[in-house]
Amino acid sequence: MAYVITDDCTACGSCIDECPVEAISEGDIYKIDPETCTDCGACADVCPVEAILPE
Question: What confidence tier does 51 reach under pLDDT thresholds 50, 70, 90?
Answer without folding.
Answer: very high
